[in-house]
Every structure is written in structure tokens, then in C-alpha cells.
Specification:
The complex is a heterodimer. Chain A is mostly beta strands. Chain A has no helices and eleven strands. Chain A is globular, with a radius of gyration of 14 Å. In chain B, 0% of the residues lie in helices and 50% in strands. In chain B, strand 9 and strand 10 form a beta hairpin. By secondary structure, chain B is mainly β. In chain B, the strands form two sheets. In chain B, strands 2, 4, 5, 6, 9, 10 and 11 form a seven-stranded mixed β-sheet that branches. Chain B has a four-stranded antiparallel β-sheet with strand order 1-3-8-7, with no helix packed on it. Chain B has no helices and eleven strands. The chains are: A mainly beta, B mainly beta. At the A-B interface, strand 5, strand 9 and strand 10 of A face strand 5 and strand 10 of B.
């Protein structure tokens, strides 16, 4: 059974970088059939997919256009983790952030516990 | 980006009722449509993928149907644990996108 454990700060100052990590157990970040995603949820924006990383003989990334200039999702194979970095945050980035696994065409079948990140000085 | 519109936004029903939630997309999805259930303070839970395939462990009272741009989630006989918010999600194109949610409340 796949488990995803999120870690990272819950408070970030405006203009700084939001950084979160998701530790995987029960699967591998280098899986050839999974993708590793970050999704956020806020009252104003609902559920919003931010980006993903996945391995298919080499590493790939996809990002949402709304955050593409500010976001990076990276795998860490040595720790079986993947991370989210969101630069130049504003209060509009305040949300619950989730990491999630998607497998082939099956949707997001495993989720982290969620991290409420507040952007405030 | 593909826009997903759910209806209704909220719904009141009683235990034992049959309930249907509708999801409409702004373009055809080739059945790349999933349904999730979310309870307060929890992450969403995958219920149905590929429009009509029940995720492992999900009770059979949940079912999905539809094609093209119009999809439905049906709960055949509501149980107390089913009162939650439900979301549809398309992954036919990147970025994937979610509906705004349907909150199912106890009447």
C-alpha cells in the first residue's frame, strides 16, 4: 500500500519560496508507471493541479500554465521523495497543498495528508 | 484548458436516497474522467476512474457513466458516510482540471 508523507513549513513570507517534500513508501519515485504530483486547494481556486514529475526511461516534468514560471517539481531518488518549490509567493498562494500519485490512466489514487501553507508577513 | 462544470453545487438528501451528480466538460474527454469524494479535513479519495471503473475497495453503490462531454456519478442508496463533497476531474489534456465540487448534505 502506497503512503505519502508530506513535510515542510506552514508559513511563508510574501516574495519568498514555498518548499514542500513528499516521502514515498510502498512505491518508487522512479516507477515506470506512476507520476508524482502536487495539487493545491483553496476556497477561491478550488482544486488546482500544479505539476508532476515522472520517469519513463528519463525524467519528465509537466507544469500548470498558471504557475509554470514559478514552480519546480523534482525527484530525489536517493531518498525516494519528490519536492515542490514555488517561488515569489503571494497571499494568493495560501492553500492546502497535497502530494499525490497517479498511475497510468487511473487518476490520483494516493494522497499525502495535506499541508496548510499560509503566505503572510 | 478544459473547464469542468458540476451540477448541482449542493444537494440535500436522506439516507437511502438515490443521488445523481452531473459533470460537463468544455470539450470531449474520451472518457478520461475521474470522480473523487472528499470529507472535511481529509484529502480527496478516488472513487471512479475512466468514467465508469470502480476503484478497488469502493462500495458498489457508487457508479459512474457518461461519455464525450457529459458524465454522471450515481449513489444508489445513500449511507451516512457518503455525506461529503464530490469532485470530477479530467485528465484528457494537461493540465488536468477539477470541477468546482458538489456538496452532499443530510436533509
Amino acid at each position: 500500500q502506497v503512503q505519502l508523507q508530506q513535510s515542510g513549513p506552514g508559513l511563508v513570507k510574501p516574495s519568498q519560496t514555498l518548499s514542500l517534500t513528499c516521502t514515498i513508501s510502498g512505491d518508487s519515485v522512479s516507477s515506470n508507471s506512476a507520476a508524482w504530483n502536487w495539487i493545491r486547494q483553496s476556497p477561491s481556486r478550488g482544486l488546482e493541479w500544479l505539476g508532476r514529475t515522472y520517469y519513463r526511461s528519463k525524467w519528465y516534468n509537466d507544469y500548470a500554465p498558471s504557475v509554470k514560471s514559478r514552480v519546480t517539481v523534482n525527484p530525489d531518488t536517493s531518498k525516494n521523495q519528490f519536492s515542490l518549490q514555488l517561488n515569489s509567493v503571494t497571499p494568493e498562494d495560501t492553500a492546502i497543498y497535497y502530494c499525490s500519485r497517479s498511475v497510468d490512466d487511473m487518476g490520483f489514487d494516493s494522497w499525502g495528508q495535506g499541508t496548510l501553507v499560509t503566505v503572510s508577513s | 484548458d478544459i473547464q469542468m462544470t458540476q451540477s448541482p453545487s449542493s444537494l440535500s438528501a436522506s439516507v437511502g436516497d438515490r443521488v445523481t451528480i452531473t459533470c460537463r466538460s468544455s470539450q470531449t474527454l474520451n472518457n478520461y474522467l475521474n470522480w473523487y469524494q472528499q470529507k472535511p479535513g481529509k484529502a480527496p479519495k478516488l472513487l471512479i476512474y475512466a468514467a465508469s471503473t470502480l476503484q478497488s475497495g469502493v462500495p458498489s453503490r457508487f457508479s459512474g457513466s457518461g461519455s464525450g462531454t457529459d458524465f454522471t456519478l450515481t449513489i444508489s442508496s445513500l449511507q451516512p458516510e457518503d455525506f461529503a463533497t464530490y469532485y470530477c476531474q479530467q485528465h484528457y489534456t494537461t493540465p488536468c482540471s477539477f470541477g468546482q465540487g458538489t456538496k452532499l448534505e443530510i436533509k
